[in-house]
Amino acid sequence: MLEVSGLRKVYRSQRREVEAIRDLTFTVDDGELVCVVGPSGCGKTTLLRCVAGLLGPTGGAVRLAGNAVTGPPPGMAVVFQEYGRSLFPWLSVHDNVDLPLRQKRVPRPRRAALVSEALTAVGLDGTQQSNPWQLSGGMQQRVAIARAVAYEPSVLLMDEPFAAVDAQTRAELEDLVRALWQRLGVTILFVTHDIDEAVYLGQRVLVLSASPTVVQDELLVDLPAARDQLHTRADARFTALRARVYEQIQAAKGAQPNTAISS
Amino acid sequence: MLRLSGLAGLLGLAELLPRLGLVDDDYLPPASRIVAALAAEARTAAFWTAVGDTLTAWAIGLVIACTLGVAAGVLIGAVPVLRTWTASTIEFLRPIPSVALIPLAVLLYGTGLGSTLLLVVYAAFWQVLVQVLHGVADVDPVAEETARSFRFSAWARVRHVLWPTALPYVFTGLRLAAAVALVLAVTAELVIGAPGLGSVIAVAQSSGAIATMDALIVVTGLLGVAINLGARLAERRLLSWHQSVRGEVAG
Predict the structure, then answer these.
(1) Which one, A10, A40, B79, B127, has the greatest CB density within 10 A?
(2) Domain limits of chain B?
(3) Does residue A129 belong to any structural domain of this protein?
(4) Nearest-by-CA chain B residue for A53
(5) Is the pLDDT confidence value at B10 over 50?
(6) Nearest chain B Cα to A153, which residue?
(7) Could you tell me which residues come within 8 angstroms of residue A166 by beta carbon, excluding any fewer than 6 positions away?
(8) Beta partners for residue A35, in sequence order
(9) Which fold has domain B50-250?
(10) Mean pLDDT score of chain A, rounded to an integer?
């Protein structure tokens, strides 16, 4: 289980302090797919980096399976929004997926199997020897997803992974994430600014307030587990849920705490 | 083709200027005579020994400078404290022209290879170091975070993120250093008299073999061109993934 309790993050520079996150508390159960959505600039990425152990919180704690997260924990993989910068351009697609496994000291035969399974799972057979920059944006993000999947994480963090790809590719990648999640039983924390995406993907949606950030609302997505772009998005329940998230985000934007940043 | 015709034009000019009496042909003989002198030189063993000496000093100096430059650059770049701590020292030492060290070099190493190496290494080292420092500073924070999130060790981050990022800069530094190293190798030989093309040029000048002297000067230029071409070729092969090279390979 992933527990975030009383998380607070203040960025300090010489001139001023910016309170990015005020007080976030939530949990994600093993095998759950939770989406985090909020108005732009609400500290979603800060939250994700704290959970990933890439950023130290100012207050509160992140716990993974009971252990405090003080650095990147084992068994966690992150898919970043900036796939072009997150993949290593000097390595082939195969080597990009393989390198974290080598660092994890996975034996060679097992590595070969994991890499090819992961690339097959994301629909990238036959691109192993290409360089990432020879592929389209959507395919590059597939490589990044394959890299994370091959790592066999128990928790997968995704930071607005589809914000930079076109709408059709995005729909395909959303279905890919749902399919992988159902097949692998991995816990996923998916950060997005897209309300539809959050409702379509998640079992649960956390709505964050504007900065300084707290949990504004939390809702269970009671849609059937088998979802598809055409029918799920036309479903009355889907429309009702997205309307609620939309209202909450509007409310979050409207109710700017008057204690906001003074500089 | 255009480049070659430019070179032909230069040769034509070098032929015409002395023949028209615009420059003194005692000191700058027409190109044809310089070429003839070059052909004659190329048949002597002494010439090839001199070329060998110069290239040896150049290569040894370059290897030392690059090794030191890369090692120091990666270390300084990877440890922020070191960077702050060394910044002023680097800014003080770097502008000292290598040739100003000639007297010191002679006192330390006499007129042998050691003196030439000191000058070559000093001049080439800064070229490499400064480029490596730029390269190390160019590491993409997202790439670095990716490596950290997959729990790469510090060494693995240097090896797999920092080094490949810095590599194009290293090559630029190497190319600049290779050119500077040749300049300093010839200078040291010319001024100190260490064995090599420079000292042969000095001997040719003092014995009045002007066409030979000019021919040897041309040889230093040719070496420079060859070194630059070689460095570019190596760069293109090893950095095929890099933006600056991609187009040339793919297109």
Answers:
(1) B127
(2) 50-250
(3) no
(4) B149
(5) yes
(6) B150
(7) A137, A138
(8) A190, A205
(9) MetI-like fold (1.10.3720)
(10) 90
Q: How confident is the model at residue B202 (pLDDT cuts 50, 70, 90)?
A: very high
Count of domains observed in chain A: 1
pLDDT in tens, B42-90: 899 999 999 999 999 999 999 999 999 999 999 988 888 888 888 888 8
ipTM of the complex: 0.89
CATH classification at residue A165: 3.40.50.300
Closest to B152 (Cβ–Cβ): which among A76, A90, A103? A103
Residues of A within an 8 Å Cβ radius of B = 49, 52-54, 71-72, 74, 76-78, 80, 82, 85-86, 88-91, 99-100, 103-104, 131, 133-134, 151
From chain B, the residues in CB contact with A151 under 8 A are 150
Question: Which residues on chain B are in Cβ contact (under 8 Å) with A89?
Answer: 241-242
In a domain, A91, yes or no: no
Q: Does B163 touch chain A (CB under 8 A)?
A: no
Q: Where are the alpha helices (DSSP H) in chain A?
A: 44-51, 83-86, 93-103, 108-121, 137-150, 167-184, 195-201, 229-234, 236-254
- Domain for residue A88, yes or no? no
Q: Cβ–Cβ of A86/B143 closer than 8 Å?
A: yes
B153 shares contact with chain A (CB less than 8 Å): yes
Closest chain A CA to residue B140: A85
Query: Residue A200: which domain range?
Result: 2-75+153-262
B150 inside 8 A of chain A by CB:
yes
Q: What is the pLDDT of residues A25-77, one digit of tens each?
A: 999 999 999 999 988 878 888 999 999 999 999 999 999 999 999 999 999 99
